[in-house]
Amino acid sequence: MRKKIVAGNWKMNMDYTSGLTLFSEVLNMVNDEAKGDQQVVVCPPYLYIHSLVQLSKNNSRISVGAQNCHQADSGAFTGEIAANMLNSVGADYVILGHSERRQYFGETNQTLAPKVDAVLKAGLKPIFCIGETLEERNQNIHLGLIKDQLVEAVFHLTADEFAKIVIAYEPVWAIGTGVTATSEQAQEIHAFIRAEIAAKYDATVAENTTILYGGSCNPKNAAELFSQPDIDGGLIGGASLKSRDFTDIVKAFNS
Ligand code: 13P
Questions:
Q1: Which residues make Cβ contacts (< 8 Å) with residue 57, sequence separation at least 6?
Q2: Could you tell me the domains of the chain?
Q3: Is the distance from CB of 5 to CB of 210 less than 8 angstroms?
Q4: Any ligand 1 atom below 6 A from CB of 235
Q5: Which pLDDT does position 178 carry in this prediction?
Q6: Sign, Cα dihedral of 165, 166, 169, 175
Q7: Per the CB 3.0–4.6 Å rule, which of 101, 145, 181, 225 could disulfide with 185?
Q8: Inter-residue contact 214 to 236 (CB < 8 Å)
């Protein structure tokens, strides 16, 4: 059985005090209210990871992740953070290849492949983001593009390595826009991604891969999205900044 996950991507939001307050609220609300076996991952700015790990130490449901990392183990890369540093402060996950990093920081499938390797080498789990822009969807080139993102950035992994990664399908046109992919649109792409994984590895690897949906996911649409056979949870931006909304999305698995 593949893992069900709701991950919050705080992006560059919250100062330290408000971040700690938000996380404490999420911890309490999720503890009190979540029923199923879904895992929760919170990805704050790097600076807060250590504190959030300390707060959630005895909580088996909630883990902490980063939003990026550098591909090298260490060295003269001013301002960067290595995957093993994230491991040393207790992070479990690293989001890689988010469309904002591709758009604003020039990340490509080629530069992301070694980051995926570095994260796995450090004993962490990548949440690898893929997805198309509206223009690419309108040109009907999105399936090929999503396949390229998989082939070029993660299909070099062995089956054992691939078993440790989480895929997040985030259509760029749905991120922060309030326009969610319909559950049919999302399911179609998730099924496509799973089929590509089966073709590259095998049906068992594909069945066991957690594929998250991201893009204007909120408490109102989460249950419908998560009820789709190939949608195993969500990567949540804006709604992860409100403890009530985020917890309600976590609870969408119970409904
Ligand atoms: P929103 O939920 O704000 O659309 O952001 C999605 C996202 O980018 C998560 O990584």
A1: 90
A2: 5-254 (3.20.20.70)
A3: yes
A4: yes
A5: 87
A6: negative
A7: 181
A8: yes
Provide CB contacts within 8 A for 253, sequence distance 6+: 4, 6, 34, 36, 38, 226, 233
Stated pTM of the model: 0.97
Alpha-carbon gap, residue 71 to 235, rounded angstroms: 23
- The token pair at 113 is 């492949």
Ligand 1 mutation target, pool 5, 11, 42, 132, most atoms within 8 A of CB: 11
Query: For ligand 1, is residue 236 a contact (CB within 6 Å)?
Result: yes
Which residue in 100, 132, 170, 196 is the catalytic one? 170
- Six token digits for residue 47: 């600076």
Q: What confidence score (pLDDT) does residue 35 get?
A: 92
Specify the residue with its C-alpha closest to ligand 1, atom 2. 237
Whose tokens are 């969807």? That residue is 137
- Spacing, Cα 20 to ligand 1 middle (Å): 20
Phi, psi of 8 (to 5 degrees): -105, 130
Residue in this structure with the two tokens 């409904």, named with its chain if needed? 255
- 101: pLDDT strictly greater than 90: yes
The Cβ of residue 30 has, within 10 Å, a number of other Cβ atoms equal to 22
Per-residue DSSP letter, 2: P
Mean pLDDT of 63-67: 98
Reduced to 3 states, what is the DSSP secondary structure of residue 222?
helix
**AA identity, residue 52:** L
